Fold each of these.
Amino acid sequence: MLALFEGHVHADGEWRLALSPEPPDPAALEFAEQALRAIAMVEDLKPDAMGLAADPALRRLEAKLDLALLLLTRAVLPSGPGQRRRARIGVSGLWIEGIPAMAEAAALHWQPSEVLPLVVHLPVRFLGPEAGGGCWAFRGLAPGLSEALERQVFRLHRRSRASGRES
């Protein structure tokens, strides 16, 4: 399915996402890169690497801090962009189940992580309907944003594969 993903790492899952006909502004693209890098730092941080694995008190404190930050973020930021939708995302674009066609140029509003409920806004171009959904290609991403997106997609792919082995 979908030549857009052939030969590239991609992840299948359900995420909060929506599309709008207005392309994102440059400040939104800068924020998207910063948000994806922040998510990477939080998700890639392993307690073992910091020497915290042996101290249960520090692990409990870290868990409490994580929970407090998550609750604070959810209280301050608006909820995610729309409903959870089944999608496949890769470094060059995405397929979204049940999304009707709209203007050729659009903005994807995507919450790429449950850890930090931040919404990133990315420019996309409609490629056409396929398999009960719509195919969209990312367009005009700066190299830093493209790299941060690629790292996030790889993490999502790795997590999906790991959960598949556990099932």
Amino acid sequence: MNWAFGILLFFAGMGLGYLLHWRMKGKGDDNQHLRRELEQARFDLDQQRQEVADYFEQSREMMVQLGQSLDKANRFWNDSAQGMLGDGQVMPLNLNQPQLEGLEEIPPKDYVQGSHGIIGAKDRIANG
């Protein structure tokens, strides 16, 4: 009788397990829901990638426009400078420098041997 009772409990457990499995699996709705979420996430990711690519393309175009504008401004400034100065008025830099001939060359002060610049030790004691 023990073995008959064991076989009966075995089949009852199998039936109960099948019913629980059938009740828990959800009939495939969960899989379809997860697939829809996955497709939505892929769509959002592709859309984000496209927005980033568009952003960088727009940034590149703006940098090209900025470079062209700077080139145009430089050409304008150079043309304006040439128009203001003319061809013969530009002198080399060395001709515009004052001549420093005949000036006495003063050696630099020695700060190592107790000298303190312009004010000597005697002047500091006298002034306070």
Amino acid sequence: MEMMEKIYRKLQDQFKQGFAFGPVGRPIQSIDQTSTGEVTVVFPGLLILLEEVGGRIIVKLPGAVRSTNNDLADDLGELCDQFIAMVKAEAESVPIDEILV
């Protein structure tokens, strides 16, 4: 859970600074962490969940962001890629898994 705290603090800093993700520059609208350590990050048009399971960080993304046949904005896939890269950088050697939900 220590790693989730580190990632949460990084996201909280980015939220406060108005940092934007992806080619369109979508800012974090809200961020929350539960007592179990799960982190919820809300962007305009996108919800991402993070949790630590068995020493791994699980990034849960809506499955449609990885599909070419959807009604979502084109930039959301790139936003997710940038977000996951940031999580990987913060997590250092902790394995990161992407799960489509």
Amino acid sequence: MSFWELVVVGVVALLVLGPEKLPGAIRTVTGTIRSIREFGHQMKSELSDELRVHELHEKLRQAEEKGLLGLSADEINALAELRQAAADVNSPYSKPAQAATDIAAQLPAATPVASTPPAVTAQSAPAAVSPSSGQPTAQAHEQKTPT
């Protein structure tokens, strides 16, 4: 758009929206344009990555057809890049697995847990009987009554 076309659009927007709503509308439009540009850059980046991966796979297929003998410099570089990419992908998973193995080796051997709960003794049980009368206390009655 030329300068004069932008001026005409600005004047029409000022007349239609008014001076109060125009700054908010401009912010909304610029935010939308910014997000569209970011989306375009992201898509371009993803497509170029996918094309690079496709190119590497094609060179790998060509190298396998040659039996990995007599490879060109491009094919050797592609194989090295694929090996590095495979190592990068596997490295985050190998470190936690190794750490878990190291931690498990440091833990003491597990002891079996008794299948029955320990018996409740008179000393560990709450006092449910009044010591003077031998009758159940109100507290014991409240414990027995479901609420």
